[in-house]
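Most newcomers find our protein records easier to grasp once they have seen one. A record pairs a protein's sequence with a compact description of its fold. An example says more than a description, so a record of this kind follows:
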Amino acid sequence: MEIRLEDFTSSVIRKVEDYMPETVDFWLREYEGFKSSGNIHIDASFSKSNAQILMQAKMTGHIIGVCSRCLEDANIDVDTDLTIMFLPASTERKYKEDEEVELTSDELDIEYYKGNKINADYLFREGLLLAIPFSPLCNDECKGLCPNCGCNLNRGECHCGEKKQIFNSIKINLF
């Protein structure tokens, strides 16, 4: 999604865009087992005041990930809001190479732009990656895998305990 400064004929511009599965898959390429499950929808408004541009965007859609318990597919809903202030690059504070800097929470939501256009695609990618839960689940009642044999307990009961008892009785009878 690209905004040009000359597009601001009024103080607010609204843009809506759907990112296709190929783009979403490209964004997720570093996350093994994660892939798109359709389009990611972005509804964004850009408000301009002097050289400052405020972006408020809503990102919705679905992706498929890996369940942290059973390793099967987990459907992940993406529903996140992004608020970013864009400022001209000329206003960016320059830091010395070895200078320690403590950023405030307000400074974390600031991006700088050069020239007369802003491309927000990388922010939507970051927003998508941050929307992925730490431990995705295929469902809240997922039973996971058997710690002994790795059987998916969602598909039925594991019989490795019975096999272990049979093996132990055979071993006892042999000695």
Summary: The beta strands are 2-4, 12-19, 35-49, 52-66, 73-88, 110-113, 117-119. The first helix runs from residue 21 to 27. The two ends are 73 Å apart (CA to CA). The mean pLDDT is 83.
